[in-house]
Amino acid sequence: xxxxxxxxxxxxxxxxxxxxxxxxxxxxxxxxxxxxxxxxxxxxxxxxxxxxxxxxxxxxxxxxxxxxxxxxxxxxxxxxxxxxxxxxxxxxxxxxxxxxxxxxxxxxxxxxxxxxxxxxxxxxxxxxxxxxxxxxxxxxxxxxxxxxxxxxxxxxxxxxxxxxxxxxxxxxxxxxxxxxxxxxxxxxxxxxxxxxxxxxxxxx
Length: 204
Prior knowledge:
Blueprint: E1 10-15, E2 20-25, E3 28-30, E4 33-36, E5 42-46, E6 49-55, H1 57-78, H2 84-97, E7 105-112, E8 118-123, E9 129-132, E10 135-139, H3 142-152, H4 159-174, E11 184-189, E12 194-199
Antiparallel strand pairs: 1-2, 1-10, 2-11, 3-4, 5-6, 6-7, 7-8, 8-9, 11-12
Helix pairs in contact: 3-4
């Protein structure tokens, strides 16, 4: 088994009309043994920027701490929040500088620009960026996530429809992956508010 699938994970970010949603499962496991059902994989950088980290749980926490530190330094120096594209480049550079002993994380970055347009992207272990205009997925459930998202996604969804689509895609996908699931969490971000909801999933 690959070290990136040691703890199991499922992450999606999806674009709507002037909004985005990011969702993850909540299971922390060691291979097929479940340890916790409230593990956090999605982190807020600022009100309009979130990052989801799939992969090895210890590297997820280390990456989050380092990225938080770098963003706070940026805020002190520039006196403003980081744009999503800038933050994606920071994540990519951070992963690439450790390429010979990488962090076993595949991040998903989702944010809103100042004009309200959503931005999503994902990278691999060494920071190669992949941009998308509809959705990005990551984690051990990514194969089934692609299928569910492709069949359910429609462009220009409002916040409520976007929540419904991303929730159904997540719940349908983790049922097909035995090392992710056990509930989920969804953040829907619009220019004015952040809606966070917890999903109940199968616990078997």
